[in-house]
UniProtKB/TrEMBL annotation:
It comes from Nocardia macrotermitis. This is Halogenase. It holds the Pfam family Trp_halogenase. Belongs to the flavin-dependent halogenase family. Bacterial tryptophan halogenase subfamily. InterPro entries: FAD/NAD-bd_sf, Flavin-dep_Halogenase_NPB, Flavin_halogenase. GO terms for molecular function: monooxygenase activity.
Length: 496
């Protein structure tokens, strides 16, 4: 790798993960083809973005396009979880200018896909991949057909980015995807006009409300007065309540049973049909291999509770593109670059896994919960446990670790949590404290028996040129990373 004059990367899937990877690689001078099965814009759930997405949008070239669209500004979250209230004001807890957006995913995803094209990637929509050709374990070509046309096209490549989301082309080919038993949940949702957030909410904040039966609601304000309102509960409980009822009535009955949600939706009008999904949480045993990476939902999807979907998608697109670009330039071996990708993306995913599982299975109060989060991140000087949790849930811990703005979290803490998720006792096949039945051994085995001898703590992402480096960061570079990112009405965003 790295000796070919014009290496070619194929990206399958045009969601946030695939579009981000394609844009970054194209900006780096790599020939990129992106095959997308659908025609954008297309509907997708998952509207709440973390603050971390802004830095990735800047370096991929998409920031100005997204900022000009007029999405709802978001400055934190308001959680009513069991007997606790969390006022997670990013400006007060993290940075005076920490913010993100609440987005219409059809429009947001379309902007990212068009940006990939603008950056030089060849984007082909209505292109369904029907087969991947391998040379041993290394993919070398893909066969695809255009919608309405049986003609089979073949595209050869030097590297493959699988961004096929829940379809998981490579994960299913290798049979390495595992469902999360304890996250066998059902989500039902719709859209409303005229609802209102809790009065203590930061600007544009997501509102999360738990229920006595173990479920929870999201309430997300969107531009134009629309609101996304969803309910998540275990599939078992949903099945019991759905007997003799349809998903719409189940949804409305669940709202009516929640005093906080009834108050927020008082006087509001439902303006869309009820949609539903279930059993959507899973993880692949590995996220990469010879000549390929799996990014975003193709590698793993956790749960909507902490709004991590787009963060993990764009974050994995960023890190994978840096690893691929560095490999193709011959600056690092493929084994080392992919080891870094596996290490960083799985660390980010496992940290969120630990936090979400504790909220569902082991939550005993905010003091203990924030203290747990405090142990899962490198502590900024003077940070309280609540601030540590807020940095994680804003996605800033992950970005800080990969760009060198902060030290890497001690992996022994996260690995220990992964072990506990797998080894806590089961009762009738259900883990009473954590997840139960999920083989998390690939998580800690990777760190104890890494893919290479590279010291991951010395590697970080750089933008000059875009890729991976182990060179120390200068004081000027560190200062630039801590500069606030200003919202559109305050001025231009800082550079990566």
């Amino acid at each position: 790798m790295g000796n070919k004059e014009n290496p070619h990367v194929l990206v399958i899937g045009g969601g946030p993960a695939g579009s981000t990877a394609a844009a970054l690689l194209a900006r780096s001078g790599v020939e990129v083809t992106l095959l997308e099965r659908d025609t954008f814009p297309r509907y997708h759930i998952g509207e709440s973005l973390l603050a971390s997405c802004l830095s990735t949008l800047r370096v991929s070239g998409a920031y100005d396009k997204v900022a000009a669209h007029g999405f709802q500004i978001k400055r934190g979250g308001y959680f009513q979880w069991q007997n606790d209230t969390w006022l997670l004001d990013w400006s007060a807890l993290v940075d005076a200018e920490a913010w993100s957006w609440q987005v219409d995913r059809a429009a947001f995803d379309d902007l990212l896909l068009r940006n990939a094209s603008d950056q030089g990637a060849t984007v082909i929509e209505q292109a369904k991949v029907t087969n991947i050709v391998f040379d041993g374990e290394r993919p070398t070509a893909a066969e695809w057909v255009k919608a309405g046309d049986d003609t089979v096209h073949t595209v050869e490549f030097d590297f493959l980015v699988d961004a096929t989301g829940r379809d998981g082309v490579l994960a299913k080919h290798f049979d390495i995807r595992r469902q999360h038993p304890a996250f066998r949940n059902v989500a039902v949702w719709s859209y409303w006009e005229g609802s209102h957030l809790h009065p203590d909410s930061p600007e544009g904040a997501i509102n999360v409300v738990s229920t006595e039966e173990g479920g929870w609601f999201w309430h997300i304000p969107l531009a134009g007065g629309r609101n996304s309102v969803g309910y998540v509960v275990s599939a078992r409980l949903a099945a019991e309540k759905l007997r003799g009822s349809d998903s719409r009535q189940f949804y409305l009955d669940s709202i009516a049973a929640s005093k906080p949600m009834t108050e927020m939706l008082e006087g509001a009008t439902q303006v869309a049909e009820v949609k539903a999904e279930q059993d959507y949480s899973y993880v692949a045993d590995r996220f990469c291999g010879p000549g390929y990476v799996m990014v975003g939902d193709a590698a793993c999807f956790l749960d909507p509770l902490l709004s991590t979907g787009v963060h993990l998608a764009t974050y994995s697109g960023l890190v994978s593109a840096a690893a691929i670009a560095t490999t193709l330039r011959g600056e690092m071996s493929e084994t080392d670059a992919l080891a870094y990708y596996e290490y960083t993306y799985r660390r980010a995913y496992t940290r969120f896994l630990s936090l979400v599982s504790r909220m569902y299975e082991h939550y005993i109060g905010s003091e203990e919960y924030f203290a747990h989060a405090h142990r899962l991140t490198d502590v900024h000087e003077g940070d309280s446990p609540e601030q540590s949790f807020t940095r994680i849930m804003a996605g800033l811990t992950d970005v800080g670790e990969t760009t060198g703005a902060q030290e890497l979290t001690g992996t022994e803490v996260i690995v220990s949590e992964a072990e506990r998720l797998d080894t806590a006792p089961d009762v009738d096949g259900v883990n009473v404290k954590y997840m139960g039945g999920l083989d998390m051994s690939p998580v800690w085995d990777h760190w104890r028996d890494p893919l290479s001898d590279t010291d991951m703590g010395d590697v970080r992402i750089t933008n000059e040129p875009f890729g991976l480096t182990s060179a120390p960061r200068t004081d000027a570079e560190r200062e630039a990373l801590t500069r606030p990112v200003l919202p559109p009405h305050h001025g231009a965003a800082a550079a990566f």
